[in-house]
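User: Hi! I have a protein structure encoded as tokens and I'd like to know what sequence might fold into it. I'm fairly new to this, so please keep things simple.
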């Protein structure tokens, strides 16, 4: 239950020099957060989901998340205009710019010599993976 897990993660973020670098939340939490943002949920669920939304915002504002650099082009991924829209529903609440397996960072504009992007979203497992994993 997110009301049990989020306070623990929140306390980690409050520590100086924490090492929290990647989060993968259950699809049901992200789906409900997306629904909450479109005002489709009842009051009881809004309280819990609002807590989750505030945590996501806090996590995304950490120094580490704001300074993610592409392993290929060394550009700050947060400052780059991406062809992958952040508001696409299937990516909602996922960890952007990061391979789930190796934790390497890639912007959404870099592609290899075969025009294949370094980072792709797997619809089957609901995670971003780099071309090497």
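Assistant: Happy to help. Inverse folding works backwards from shape to sequence: for each of the 133 positions I chose a residue that suits the local structure. Here it is:
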């Amino acid at each position: 239950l997110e009301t049990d897990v989020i306070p623990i993660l929140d306390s980690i973020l409050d520590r100086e020099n924490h090492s929290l670098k990647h989060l993968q939340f259950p699809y049901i939490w992200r789906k409900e957060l997306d629904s909450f943002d479109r005002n489709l949920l009842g009051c009881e669920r809004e309280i819990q989901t609002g807590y989750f939304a505030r945590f996501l915002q806090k996590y995304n504002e950490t120094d580490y998340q704001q300074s993610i650099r592409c392993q290929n082009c060394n550009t700050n991924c947060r400052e780059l205009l991406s062809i992958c829209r952040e508001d696409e529903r299937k990516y909602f609440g996922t960890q952007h710019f990061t391979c789930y397996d190796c934790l390497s960072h890639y912007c959404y504009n870099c592609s290899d010599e075969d025009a294949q992007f370094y980072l792709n979203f797997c619809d089957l497992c609901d995670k971003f993976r780099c071309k090497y994993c």
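A useful reference point when you look it over: The two ends are 30 Å apart (CA to CA). Feel free to ask if any position seems puzzling.
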